[in-house]
Amino acid sequence: MTDNVNKSRRTLLLSTGAVGAIGAGFAAVPFLKSWLPSERAKAAGGPVKADVSKVEPGQMINILWRGQPVFVVNRTPKQLDVLESLNGKLKDPTSESSVQPAYVDNINRSIKENLLVVVGICTHLGCSPKYYPDLVPQTFDAEWKGGFFCPCHNSRFDISGRVFAGSPASRNLDIPPYTFLDENTIEIGNDGEQA
């Protein structure tokens, strides 16, 4: 009879343990899933598409990617023509110490000559520079040839986002990975076939 009681007790303990283990598994799944990033967090870090067909020459649009502004500028031929003449005034004219993909390693720092895609955060202390497209004297630069000016600490960047010598910013504006999905659509945060 003691053997029967022990078997019943053993069966009860085993079945209770099995049910407890299954219950712990069901309880662990939502707990572990809570560690995964939310859909909103995934979207914030994922690639962003933008239609650039309506950006007129000389204009800039601002796109939010990973919580930071990305400037897309449709540069005019006049703006592009002055780039070579600025090389002697820049800290890093050939973008050797820049944060940028290899496929934009040119004076324009872009895939398409006229379209600049650049992170709109100053490389000095993280302010957002303002876009000054006109090739006219400005209060901060009597020989201004278009580009970006950061009013926080007076860093100046040309129309390719290259930093001028004498600016507090240590390097050129960063270029994010991007690709053209078609003639009018870019995807920021994805190299596509460019890599």
Q: Explain this structure to me?
A:
The protein is an alpha+beta fold. It folds into two domains: 1-36; 43-188, Rieske Iron-sulfur Protein (3-layer Sandwich). 23% of the residues lie in helices and 21% in strands. The chain has three helices and nine strands, in the order H-H-E-E-E-H-E-E-E-E-E-E. The strands form three sheets. It has a three-stranded antiparallel sheet with strand order 1-9-8, with no helix packed on it. Strand 2 and strand 3 (68-74) form a beta hairpin. The longest helix is centred in the first third of the chain and has 32 residues, at 2-33. The model has no long low-confidence stretch (mean pLDDT 88).
Mean pLDDT: 88
Number of strands: 9
| Alpha carbon gap, first and last residue | 76 Å
Going across the major beta sheet, what is the strand order? 1-9-8
Count the DSSP helices: 3
CATH topology of the largest domain: Rieske Iron-sulfur Protein
Structural class, please?
Answer: alpha+beta
CATH class (first level) name of the largest domain: Mainly Beta
Radius of gyration: 28 Å
Low-confidence stretches: none
How many domains? The number is 2
- Largest sheet features: 3 strands, antiparallel
What is the CATH homology-level superfamily of the largest domain?
A: Rieske [2Fe-2S] iron-sulphur domain
What proportion of the residues form beta strands (DSSP E)? 15-25%
What are the secondary-structure elements, in order, as H or E?
HHEEEHEEEEEE
CATH-defined architecture of the largest domain: 3-layer Sandwich
Q: Which shape, going by the Cα principal axes?
A: elongated
Indicate the percent of residues in helices: 10-25%
